[in-house]
Amino acid sequence: MVTLRSTAVVVLWLLFIVTFVRALMMGHLSQSSGRRLWLMFFLSVLACTFWGEAAEMQLDRHFRDLPVALYLKYFCLVGVCHLYWQLLQDVVELPASTHWLNGVIWAAGGAAIASWVDYALRSSLSRDDLRYIVIGARDSVISLYIFAGFFRGTRMLLRRERVAAMRLKQTAILCFFTSFVITALGSTSAGVMTILGIGDPQSASEVLQPFLYPTLFFFVVMLIPYRWYSAIPSGRNLWRYYRLKRVERRIFRLAETQPNINPQQWFVFQSGLLELSVYRTLISILDGYPMLDGQPQGKLMFEAVRNCVSQSSSYDELVQSLGACVDVRPHS
């Protein structure tokens, strides 16, 4: 388990360093929104570095065994929530009733500092009890952000998004929020049990731990740069291109000529080029089908394409209806 955790931490830091250097070289940190995103990325990876009690102890031994790592993770994750909330407010119009979340970080931070000072001076709690309370408080604050603002704001972004790769990213964020809230139920319950002195906090904190794995998975998917998985071709676009290409070839075969557009065939390895090839093939069909007007062997194809053009109200609808023309057969 330790080896698995260490490997995951190394992978996260490598992912961060490689993408950060690339973003720095390309000037993506010139805007405040870009710097905010990278700060969120850094704080998230830093918090993951000290995940687990064993990792906390490795850092704490350099600070006379004070719970530095525990509170470091607290501030990192609450800080990420505050930064993401600021980002959402910049890109979507959220109702005024949610603006009170801007002050949550100050209340949560003040309470954390006060509790750390109290523990450092008096040590009135055992280390285990302190962990249950701090982790429960941290996850409660994060869940508050998620329920009060993140779910609504991210759904608004998802509804507005038209790029498949970005829709995947927004969906991963929503899945991350959902699995995190489920995991947080256990830690929050453990914190409440510790404060009230009832039940078994350890069992409460562990019962929902299996949900930590999908949480980490969706977290990693969130961190993958857009360009990395936007290069994966869409199966839907591959199918659309295949059908449009067959229609194009049939039109120009019936017209006894060759299309002017002949895109490269390696496009399938890049989603952006695939979408461009779909568009170019569509234009080739629209340019070529008038040549079938008045030709007996191309009459059915001409009428089918003309009907698609006249009846389609959007680009997607036109692509889909033209692809169906592949089933049009000339008279024998």
Q: Could you walk me through the main structural features you see in this protein, from its secondary elements to its overall organization?
A:
With 332 residues, the protein is mainly α. Helices cover 73% and strands 0% of the residues. The chain has helices at residues 2-25, 32-49, 53-60, 68-91, 104-122, 127-160, 164-196, 201-206, 212-223, 226-230, 235-254, 271-288, 299-311, 315-323. The chain is elongated.
Q: Could you write a compact summary of the structure shown?
A:
Helix content is 73%, strand content 0%. It has helices spanning 2-25, 32-49, 53-60, 68-91, 104-122, 127-160, 164-196, 201-206, 212-223, 226-230, 235-254, 271-288, 299-311, 315-323.
Q: What gross morphology would you assign?
A: elongated
Span of the ends, CA to CA: 69 Å
Regions with little confidence, pLDDT below 50 for 5+ residues: none
Major sheet details: none
Averaged pLDDT, please?
Answer: 83
Query: What percent of residues are in strands?
Result: under 5%
| Percentage of residues in helical conformation | over 70%
* DSSP, total strands: 0
Number of helices: 14
Helix-strand sequence: HHHHHHHHHHHHHH
Rg of Cα set: 28 Å
SS content category = mainly alpha
